[in-house]
Specification:
The chain is an alpha/beta fold and 123 residues long. It is built from 5 helices and 5 strands. Helix content is 46%, strand content 22%. Strands 2-1-3-4-5 form a 5-stranded parallel β-sheet, with helices on both faces. The two termini are 14 Å apart. Pfam families: Response_reg.
Length: 123
Amino acid sequence: MSRCMIVEKSAVVRKVSKRILGADDRSIIEAETAAEALAMCDAQMPDTIIVEADPADMELVEFIRALRQMEGGAVPVVIVAMIEMDLVCMTKAKRAGADDYLLKPFDRAQLLSRFEQVTAAAA
């Protein structure tokens, strides 16, 4: 069973994402803040992380770098959820170690399609 983490300050977006991704055989965990997510990753690294582009408590690049520097060998797929195509943010996130992007708001088909594409490419 794969594990996916959703890092998002909006409880509604976390709930919708969890409902969509959890329908298949996936374990979904949620974090409201980047710091909370890093603590959870330190305990057990998920296979995939969907993180909003503007976490409330730290810069996105800082979060991705901290994630990529964690020891333990597991390297999760990181998908950044953005409300607009921001080339500067996308480039910085990619250089820090993000794997792909997803535009918000998304629907069931968009989220599942992007998730499957990115995780299949990483496998």
